[in-house]
Amino acid sequence: MAEVIDEEALRAELAEDRPPHAGPWSQLGAAVVTGLIGVAGVIGSLTLGLGRLTAPGPGLWPFVVSALIAVLSVVLALVGRGGTDTEKFSRSSVLTAIAVLTLVLFAFALPLIGFEIPSLLLTFVWLRFLGRQRWFPSVAISVGTVAGFYVLFVLLLQIPLPRLI
Known about the structure:
The chain is mainly alpha-helical. It folds into two domains: 22-85; 89-165, no CATH class. It has helices spanning 7-17, 24-48, 60-79, 91-113, 116-130, 135-156.
């Protein structure tokens, strides 16, 4: 005989594992921050030059993506405030901020010292410290990932990535 699931009990159990709701102001704050990022991207892409659809310039796709981010931010500001799927800042929020910071550091280090060391460090930090993996798998996966990227992008596809050698 099929087991009957009590939906109320299931909802209550799922709600216990979930962080508290952050409220409408956090939705509005997220919309403002992402909107500013979108506008900054639009301005930056215009300085690169859009070109034409038949001869796109270097700023065309960043412009399209940034404009989409700005438009979706406005939509979030208008309709997202009633949502209940936002979470208050917690330890996992700090981990996300650290992950973004490591990506920014990666972007700055890449043209200076090549892709090998920054990629190795980024992968290792994400696995060992953010993902809480053990030391050996973190080192092995990091080295394997960078080696795989090297073979794929440098040797096979011959993409001119910034490199040590």
